[in-house]
Amino acid sequence: MPKWPIIIGLVGGITIGIMLIGDDTAENTPEVAQDEARFVYATFYPYYEFTSGVAGDALEVRQLVPNGAQVHDWEPNATRIQSLKDSVAIVYSNTETEPYVDRLAGLEEFGGILFIEASPDGGDADIHDNEREEHEEEEDHDEHDSRKSHTWLDPIDVIGQVNRIHDKLADYDPENAETYELNAREYVQQLRELDQRYRDGLRDCQNDTIITFHNAYEHMAERYGLKVFGTASAHHAEASARDIASMIEHARETGVQAIFADELADTRHELAVADEIGVDVIPLSTLEGLRLHEQASYFEKMGQNLDALRDGLRCQ
Ligand SMILES: [Zn+2]
Asked: How many angstroms separate the CA atoms of 177 and 174, rounded?
């Protein structure tokens, strides 16, 4: 049995080798772990995009809500709460859209984490201010709430949000402040170009009403002179027979040529309405998430939406 001593010798050598490497790594562990721990969480897709745009290569950004999930009903489970605790900052839209963030911010374990509320006022205050006040007087509570959300679909509003993310990250991490500044400036430039594309693309359309069940488009519509007819009182809820009937009536009155449907949701009801009045159903994204396995930037998704709107509203 001459082989055994050789094998034992080899295994012994390897073991000592592993122990040596192990010791070596152990000494460096605190530093490595600290570097690895520098990551930021952004709650859902557009906030992941905006934060990544500002952070560039200076900071790792992770998306909390997986694509394909419903943003409005989503809650983090224990595992996700644990990994949120390891982050340095959490970027979110506002407490209206992600109410769980408010609860986490109140917990002692989250005391050292920077919370960045990108859209605290739920929309930029200087556009259509008078109109908004009038609306708010008329609207019931649910509609009011829905208006505080979905600001990420308005490129001009997003400029303010990106600047807010930039300010906070630069304060937190002054070493990389210059990088954040350059990245934010470039991102804002792209947002201005996107805004111009929307202005040009939606200037001359046969129809001006977005008819849809998921009322996510008010900010964007206001910005570009469009109207939205949606079941605002039931933001993501199942459409009732009454909602469907009123949608058919409104679609007939306004002479629209398309019904817009949330590309992530079941489109049965939209198809029923479209069938009844003989128009198309066109998918539109709320950008609350991508489809499973889809990869697209914020600008690509917004471009797809512009194409869909131009198609459905019959724009020149
Ligand atoms: Zn929504």
From this structure: 5
